[in-house]
C-alpha cells in the first residue's frame, strides 16, 4: 500500500483532457487524376485540431490540400488509418450518416459554387431547406447569416449581380447558417484580388474568434503571414508544423 509520503509526492491529477474535434491518424490517401492515373497524396498523415482552433494547410497547388479537407467531410475515405470529426469516424460512419456529419461543418470553396439562378438569400436558405428546417426558421436564420457577413443589403442579388468578394461572403453565410463547429475553407481567396482577399480573410478570422474552429487550405503565404495561426505544410505526404514568419 502506498504511504502518505508517496501519495503526497505524486502529482495531482488535473482535469481530463478534452478530446480533439478533429483527428487524422496514420492516414494513407490518394486520388485518380483526369487521365485515370492513381496519385498518392500521403501515406502517413497525422493531424489534430481542437475545438475553436484555427489552422492553415499550406502547400503548392496540386499537393493534396483539398484531399485532406475531403477526408474530413468524407467525400474521400482513407485507404489506411483513421479520420474522426466529432463522433464520426471513417471506419464506422455509414454513407447514410454522412449528411449528419456535414451538418456539423461549413465548407467554403474557391469557385463559390452558388446556384446562379437564385439570390444570395435563396442560396443560403437552400442549405436549410435541404435539412428540413421549417420555413419561418429558415428566413430568420438565413437573414441572420447574411447580416453576419455584411451582406444584408445584397440579399436579393443573384451571383451574376455580385462582385467576387460579395459572392464569397454569400458562400461564407451559406456555410455558417447551420452554426457549424468547424469551417473548412478550400482556397477561399484564390479567385480574389489582394484587397478583397484580405476582407474575406478578416471575416473568417472574426468568425473563428467567436468560437468556430477553422481549417483553411491555401497557397497564399501573404495571407498566412498577415493573419498568423498554426500552420501545417504538406511535405512529401506528411504534415509538418512550420513558423508562418519563415514563409
UniProtKB/TrEMBL annotation:
Task: Reply yes or no: does the keyword Nucleus apply.
Answer: no
Read off the Gene3D superfamilies from this record. P-loop containing nucleotide triphosphate hydrolases
Coiled coil location: none
Q: Tell me the GO molecular function terms.
A: ATP binding
Keyword list, A-Z: ATP-binding, Nucleotide-binding
According to the entry, every stretch annotated as the ABC transporter domain falls at 22-247
Q: Which SUPFAM superfamilies match?
A: P-loop containing nucleoside triphosphate hydrolases (SSF52540)
Query: Would you tell me the protein name for this molecule?
Result: ATP-binding cassette domain-containing protein
Which species is this UniProt entry from?
A: Rubrivirga litoralis
